Amino acid sequence: MKGGIGDKVKNKKRIGVCTILLSVLILFPVISGQINVNSPVNGKIYDSISVLLGFDSSVKGNFYLAKTNDARDGVVLCKNAKSCNSIIKAKEGENHLWIKRINSGDVEFSDEINFFIDSISPKISKLDVSYLGKAYSNGKDIAVSYSEKDLKKVELSYGLDSNIGNIISTSKTNCESGEKKKCSFSNVNLSGFENQKIDIWFTLSDSVNSVVSKKTRVTVDTISPIIETANYTVKGSGVIFSVKVNEKNLKEISYRDYSDCYDSGERTGILCTKLNANKNCNANKNFCAGLHRIVVIARDLAGNEDSQEFSNVKIDK
Description:
With about 325 residues, the chain is mainly β.
C-alpha cells in the first residue's frame, strides 16, 4: 500500500499544529467589539461647550477619549464598563474626536464622533432705525450692525404695543456673516402707522442661538414736505429767497448751487431751519458772479424731501 506510514505521520503533524494554534487563541483571544455612541449626535450643532458623551459597547473594558485615531492614550472616560456617560468640555467650532477601548497600551477597537459647538450668540452693536437719530422714520433706511460668524437669519419687527398684536415682521436669510457687518432693510412700508409712535427691533439667529435687540420707539412720517411756492429776487450779488412749505416736522430748507464760478462746480448751504407764522422761509444769500442753477430742498425729520429748481440765475459782478 502506498503512503501508509508516511500519511499517518503527516496527519499527526497537522493535528499537532492545529492544537497549538487553538491553545494560543484560547490563551490570547482576539478582541472584537463595537461602540454605539448615543450622544453627541454626529453632525449636530450644540449651543454649549459642555456636552454629554454617552455610549455603550458590546465588550466591557477601559474607554478613553482622544483627538486622533493614532493616539494610544487619552482622557479616561470609564474603566471596566460596557456603558458610559460623561460630561466633556468641547471646543468652539468643529470637534472631531475618537472613543477607544485600550488595553495594555493597545487600541482594540474605536469609534469616531464629529459635532459642532456654537455657544456664542450674535452680538448687536448698533441700530439704525431713524433719520439722523431724530426719532422719526420713513422706513427707507432701517439697518442693524452686528458680529456673527455663522449668521442664518435677521428678522425685523415693528409695530404698536405687542399686547395689541399689531406687529409686522419681515426677515432676510442672505445677510453677511463676519465681524462688524451690517444688514439693511430698504423701503419698509410703514405707511399703515402714519403719525403714530411704533417700536422697531431686530432678532438675529445663528444655527442654534438667537438674540433680540432693544426696542427703539420712532414716529412714523412717510409723507414728504410740500413746497407750495418758491420765489427769488436777485439784488447785486445777493439772492433773496421766499419759500412757502407745508410740513409740520420740518428739519431744514437747504440749497444746492451749481456754477462754473466755483472751483468744485458746486456749493451747498442752509436757508432756514424754521418757518415763520405764515409757513414761509425768507433768506438772503450771496453768490459769485456768473450763471447759476439753484435747487431748493425742503427736508423733514424723517428724511422725506421736496425740491424746486431755479435755472439760469444770473449774478452780476
